[in-house]
Structure formats: C-alpha cells, structure tokens
Design brief:
alpha+beta; disordered C terminus; transmembrane; four-stranded mixed sheet
C-alpha cells in the first residue's frame, strides 16, 4: 500500500546572508519588522483613544531594550543547558542575541517594566498604554515567528501530515553539518518532516490580533483589560502548541516549563480581567502632564538661555532707542531757593524799600506808609524789555 503525500513545504535553505563581512540575519529582520509594525499600530490606536501622537515611540525607547533583554534572560533561564551545561555553547554564545533565542514571557515582563518607567515619566496610565499596544504586540509576535522558520527552530514532533515541514541538514562555514546550524546552508539532505508549530503560532497570533481589534471596536474596553485579553488569548494558544513541540526544552516533572508559565500567566490575566474597572479611561488622562513632558533640567536650561538672550539684547536696544528719559524734579529746597533768586532779580526795588525802614515809625507814619504802597508798587515793576 502506498501513501500519497499531498505536499510538504520545505525550510528555507539558509537564514543568514552576507553583505561583504556583515551578516544579514532573517531572524533579526523579522524581529525589527514586527517591532515597527507594533509601534505604527500602537501609535494610531493611542491617538484614536485621545492620546498624543508620537508618545508610543517615546515609550518604546524604554520598553524595547528592556523587552529584548528580558526575552533573552528568560530564554537563558529556561534553556540554560544549551549554554552553560556540559558541552554547552558557553557564556559568549549566551550574549549572541542575533542568533535567536528570545522568550516572549520575559520580553513582555521586562518590557512592561520599561514601559512603566516611561509612563511614569510622562504621567500616563500604564494600563491605557497596554490596551493601545496589545494588538500590535501580538502582530509583532506573528511576524517574528517567520524568523524561527528561517532558523529551522521551534518545530514540533515528526508527522506525516500533508502540511508537514521539511527540516534539512545545514553545513556551517566551518564545515560542521547539523540541523541546528544557524549560519549554515542546506545540504539538500532531508533530516525529518515535523509539525510546523511556528506556523501554528503565527496563525493563532493573527486570530488573536483580529479578535482584539474587533472586541475593542465592538465594546468599550479599557483600564488594561484589552491587554489582559491579549495575554489570556495568547496563553491558550501557546499551551496547545507547546503540547506539539518536540525541540529541546527544560522540563519540570516531565512537563515543559513553558506549559507551567502559560498556565500561571493565564490565571493572572483572567483574574485581572475580572477585577479591573469596566469602561475606558477619560481621554484627558492620556495626554499626560505638560510639565512632565520636559525634563526639569531642560526647563532650567531654557530659562537660563532666555535670561542670557535678554541680557545680551538689553545694551543693544538701549543704544538704538532715543533717550526719552524725563529729568527728575528738583528738590523742594532747591526749588524754593531758585524762586527766591528769581524774585530778587525781577523785583529789586521792593527789596530796597524793605531794606530801608523808617527810623522811628509811629502809628500815623505807619498808616501813611500803608496808604502809600499802592502808589509805589506800580512804579517798581519791571517792563518786558528788562
């Protein structure tokens, strides 16, 4: 009896190309493409919820590096024998993140810490950020799984299913032949046909992505509940896919460690989904505090620069403008002295008359003098020619 095989699909012949001496790795390219897609989608969703455009990219400056480090640490912790066990690749290989090996749970956990730091600096609620970026994250995971395809990794058990994945031996630059050679090129020799678990997870992630978009439009979901839905949905799919995988992994009591992780994280997501507030955040809370958007140091520097510019501009402006300053009014004493001097110059005869009194005035003489004043004063006034 013969078995007719409908179709197997092959693995790529290689996952690394060289531009002169620079290696171009498919895994890294797909990771970068996934991050870019997540940020673009997240930025649009953040703006649609009332946030400021561009804030997602600022938060990503913290979240992405933290996420890459967390993903690598989780991979090393759950697959430590590959690097530190007997015959392992060694600690230097543990740093070669571009060769592949990122754990999604570590990436989400430590990436969340980086996002939390950035959100606090921006005075933005972290749950709202999580709701905006959640669909983008799961889409980025789907894109990143294509990198696993090029690396011939994360495959399942051997199968005769018509959609089985062909795994070939690869020869690396040193001449070593192995199915796990990341730098190698296919020899064309078939090693096995396996379950394409990377493809299963890719398709499942696309389903979760579409479901999140639909639910977010259909219902008013906020306060981190959409992010919890993403985590719960991914855990359900990951749990089933882990049961099909047969690649090297750390086991606890004969169970793959990722099964334990998926179970505990799923429980946590469901609890959060139940306890979190219903509805969605007020859009005004997503704009953050304007004072927080600039660092205090930068505000001080701006103030110093403005003061310096004002100080430099003041002498030039003072020299260019005409002097319109009004003289201060004279002091009262000086003013009185000036009036006395003016009176002395204008009315000297009056001063002379007062300076020559009668030797022995009597009452009749005083009366005569008083009666004489009206006739004497007109004669003593100066004319305009003086």
């Amino acid at each position: 009896m013969t078995t007719t095989v409908i179709a197997y699909f092959p693995s790529p012949p290689q996952g690394v190309w060289h531009l002169w001496i620079v290696p171009i790795r498919a895994y890294a390219l797909f990771i970068i493409a996934g991050i870019i897609a997540a940020l673009i989608i997240g930025d649009r969703r953040w703006a649609a919820r009332g946030g400021e455009r561009g804030v997602i990219y600022d938060i990503a400056l913290w979240a992405v590096p933290f996420g890459l480090i967390g993903g690598r640490l989780y991979h090393l912790a759950t697959d430590w024998r590959t690097y530190f066990g007997d015959g392992g690749a060694g600690p230097i290989a543990a740093l070669r993140i571009w060769d592949g090996g990122l754990g999604i749970w570590g990436a989400v956990a430590l990436g969340g810490v980086g996002a939390w730091i950035a959100c606090r600096r921006r005075d933005i609620p972290l749950p709202a950020f999580g709701d905006a970026i959640a669909p983008g994250i799961v889409l980025a995971q789907a894109i990143g799984r294509l990198g696993n395809y090029f690396n011939q990794e994360l495959y399942g058990r051997e199968t005769t299913m018509p959609w089985g994945l062909e795994i070939f031996y690869r020869r690396d630059p040193a001449g070593f032949v192995d199915v796990h050679s990341l730098d190698g090129v296919s020899t064309g020799q078939l090693a096995m046909v396996v379950q394409p678990t990377f493809l299963y997870e890719l398709l499942w992630n696309l389903v979760v992505f579409a479901l999140l978009i639909y639910l977010d439009r259909r219902f008013t979901i906020g306060h981190g509940r959409l992010f919890a839905l993403y985590v719960a949905g991914y855990c359900i799919g990951r749990f089933g896919i882990e049961l099909l995988r047969d690649d090297t992994a750390t086991h606890i009591a004969g169970i793959r460690i990722n099964l334990f992780t998926s179970t505990f994280v799923l429980i946590g997501a469901v609890v959060y989904l139940i306890l979190a507030p219903k509805g969605r955040e007020d859009p005004a809370t997503l704009s953050g505090s304007a004072a927080e958007l600039l660092e205090p140091d930068s505000l001080d520097e701006d103030a110093d620069e403005a003061a310096a510019e004002t100080a430099e501009a003041t002498p030039a402006e003072a020299a260019a403008e005409p002097d319109t300053t009004v003289a201060d009014p004279p002091e009262p004493e000086a003013e009185a002295g000036a009036e006395e001097a003016e009176a002395a110059e204008v009315d000297p005869p009056v001063v002379e008359v007062q300076a020559e009194p009668e030797a022995e005035p009597d009452e009749s003489g005083a009366d005569e003098a008083d009666n004489a004043e009206p006739t004497d004063l007109p004669a003593t006034e100066p004319d305009e020619d003086q």
